[in-house]
Specification:
The protein is an alpha+beta fold and about 220 residues long. The protein is built from 12 helices and 4 strands; from the N terminus they run βαβαββαααααααααα. Helix content is about 55%, strand content about 5%. It is globular, with a radius of gyration of 17 Å. It starts with 10 loop residues before the first strand and ends with a helix.
Length: about 220
């Protein structure tokens, strides 16, 4: 995947270097080896040209020539359909529906805790940290059911889940030794070449926490 420092690519992803949703898309771009550029933006001060493209001024935003997309899930599904190899979503309708439901549940059950935890050390952060920890502990047997998340093959579900797990150490979410299944799963997805290539400089700075967590 081309960097923002290189030539101007026809496809550009605008995202924050700290945002887990932008990280999801960067993983997909690297898994598929898509020729693209990444522009890291300060979400508090989006450039005018981005606001012109996206009326919400939100990130992540993908620009592919005349097409502008600004929802992480829509962007990832578009990339999987436009660049079908390797496939990250099952080809059959039932498999696709199940994959979408898993992504929906991850985004609904676990991702909402990111914002209050990252917002500070107040009661909301403590509550979010405890709820996320308890929910992951309850789900730990699922992580060991198959090599990837409820699948024999690496999929879009793993692209969505990996950025959340990578941030657990930095979020202060500690898991007990009984969650070995999550640790093994995390190590498996973190070691993928595409995942390592997807990391921003900020996210690489979290690796010390991730390594400590998956030992």
């Amino acid at each position: 995947m081309a960097s923002s420092a290189g030539r101007k690519a026809a496809m550009i992803l605008f995202c924050s270097p700290t945002c887990a949703y932008g990280h999801q898309i960067r993983i997909v771009l690297n898994e598929k080896a898509i020729d693209s550029g990444v522009e890291f933006i300060d979400p508090a001060h989006p450039p005018e040209d981005l606001i012109d493209l996206n009326p919400y001024g939100s990130m992540p935003t993908l620009v592919d020539r005349d097409l502008v997309l600004y929802d992480a899930r829509i962007i990832m599904e578009y990339l999987d359909e436009r660049f079908p190899h390797p496939p990250l979503v099952p080809t059959d309708p039932v498999g696709r529906a199940r994959s979408r439901m898993l992504v929906h549940r991850i985004e609904r059950d676990w991702y909402p805790y990111l914002e209050p935890i990252e917002a500070g050390d107040g009661p909301g952060a403590a509550h979010g940290r405890n709820r996320l920890r308890e929910s992951l502990i309850a789900a730990s047997p699922v992580f060991g059911a198959k090599p990837y998340f409820l699948s024999e093959d690496y999929s879009l579900v793993d692209c969505v889940l990996a950025p959340l797990l990578w941030r657990l150490g930095a979020l202060g979410v500690d898991l007990p030794s009984s969650c070995d299944t999550i640790r093994r799963y995390a190590r498996r997805v973190f070691e993928r070449e595409a995942f390592q290539a997807s990391l921003s400089e900020h996210e690489r700075g979290l690796v010390v926490f991730a390594e400590a967590w998956v030992v």
